[in-house]
Specification:
single chain; Helix Hairpins; five-stranded antiparallel β-sheet; five-stranded mixed β-sheet; about 15% strand; elongated
């Protein structure tokens, strides 16, 4: 503890005031002849010296406490050893000791809370960025760093976010125009749609923060909205064409083709074709809606994969024979049951085998390979539950790599005209994807142009 610096003027004044009664007494005794003037002066000086010593020690205690208070006010450790006190006032010493202990406890609690808050803030998954009045980054949560990449404290917000919309909104909030909400897109580190809320703090924080920017990744929401819009547009288009053909055919039959048997056969055939197509489309839409409704509910029951594939091979072989295509179910699983919905699993492989027949070249073979395997999407060296792997391999024209990621989108077709000509609704692979997902499985698609495509389904085997 640094020795307090006691102002001499205050020390002299207090010493003089404390010595004044003694000086008056000794002066009175000398004036009445009861005490010699020399003795009176010496006695007064001795009293003044003793009182000065006591005053200095007392003032030392007072200034130590003042120095202690100033240290606390400046955020110091508040270190005031009790042995530094003079001991003239025991109550004073005890009060300072209690104050020091209480301060230490409160400081410890505050430090613990601050440390906890700091840890929580730093590791918060919600992307948050704290800014000072100069739009510089004070700190960013781990969620913000994961979303935006490097966010260096002390740099301007534009170093992490290069979107004019968010920067303009932040500037307006810092200028006092109130909280803002803005949506924008960024290209780096990934193409992402973000909704940001900029909120000014009621009081500047201890670290200089005056505003907080909350970021929400709305990329998936935007994609879902786009998918819904595209779905409505595509569904309307898919239904509009057969309805227009049927409507036109009816008018033709009622007018120019009335009584013309050849024309009637032609237009009735068109009506049957397009009504069948429309019925198939509606059935697929209803099926997809039902599957999506139960997407988060794991199916009950059991499905025998071997029995399903054998049954489908027998059922679809006549259709394949019309195009001189053989369906070969290669030896693999003798019998293997999985937890799942038998009719949904059959729908998966019926769609995949039917597609293989449609898009294979004539005089080729559609191979079905089954085996037990581990999930190929697991981390390297980590094997989770066992899976049944079912691969449907065709020998068609193949699919270019640019189309593969979008094949399971609703109404997405590589060749729209050929798909419609073959009676496809554009929903088959979307149904496959959702059923496989509901069964906690995975769908993998591989293709080589000019050689064919392979659609592989991985379904988990329940533990024994």
């Amino acid at each position: 503890m640094v020795q307090p610096n006691i102002p001499f003027g205050r020390f002299a004044t207090l010493t003089a005031l404390a010595s004044l009664p003694a000086i008056i007494v000794f002066g009175g005794l000398a004036a009445t002849g009861r005490l010699g003037w020399g003795v009176a002066v010496i006695s007064a000086l001795i009293c003044a010296a003793m009182l000065g010593f006591m005053v200095r020690r007392g003032l030392g205690d007072v200034y130590r406490v003042l120095q202690f208070s100033d240290t606390l006010a400046r955020g110091g450790s508040g270190d005031l050893p009790v042995q530094d006190m003079s001991g003239l006032f025991p109550e004073f010493t005890e009060a300072v000791t209690r104050l020091q202990q209480a301060w230490g406890q409160d400081r410890g609690a505050l430090d613990a809370r601050a440390s906890s808050a700091e840890t929580i803030l730093e590791n918060l998954l919600q992307p948050l960025i704290l800014l000072n009045a100069d739009r510089q980054i004070v700190r960013a949560t781990v969620g913000a760093r994961d979303l935006l990449g490097e966010t260096v404290p002390g740099r301007d917000l534009s170093s992490a976010l290069r979107a004019p919309e968010i920067l303009d909104a932040v500037d307006r909030t810092l200028a006092g125009s109130g909280n803002k909400v803005v949506e924008f897109d960024i290209d780096f580190p990934a193409n992402t749609s973000i909704s940001a809320q900029i909120q000014a703090l009621s009081e500047p924080a201890a670290d200089g923060s005056v505003a907080v920017v909350s970021l929400f990744d709305i990329t998936e929401i935007r994609q879902v909205q786009k998918m819904r819009t595209d779905f409505v547009a595509n569904a309307s288009h898919e239904l509009r064409t057969p309805l227009a053909v049927i409507s036109g055919s009816i008018k033709t039959l009622q007018g120019p083709a009335l009584g013309d048997e050849e024309a009637q056969k032609k237009f009735l055939g068109m009506m049957e074709h397009h009504s069948t197509r429309m019925t198939r489309l509606i059935e697929d839409l209803l099926s997809l809606s039902r599957i999506e409704l139960n997407a988060n509910t794991f199916p009950t029951g059991a499905a025998d994969i071997s029995a399903i594939l054998t049954r489908l091979t027998e059922t679809l072989s006549p259709r394949a024979a019309h195009r001189k295509i053989d369906i070969v179910l290669e030896p693999g699983l003798v019998e293997h049951r999985i937890a799942g919905d038998d009719s949904e699993i059959e729908q998966v492989f019926q769609n995949l085998i039917d597609n293989a027949i449609k898009y294979s070249d004539e005089n080729t073979v559609v191979r079905i390979i089954t085996r037990e395997s581990h999930n190929p999407f697991s981390e390297p060296g980590k094997h989770d539950n066992r899976y049944i792997e079912i691969a449907i391999i065709d020998q068609g024209a193949g699919i270019s790599a640019e189309h593969l990621p979008r094949l399971t989108e609703r109404f997405y077709r590589v060749d729209t005209a050929r798909s419609r000509e073959m009676g496809g609704t554009g929903l088959g692979l979307a149904i496959v994807k959702h059923i496989v997902g509901r069964h906690r499985g995975r769908l993998s698609i591989g293709s080589t142009e000019g050689k064919g495509s392979t659609f592989t389904v991985y379904l988990p085997i329940p533990p024994n």
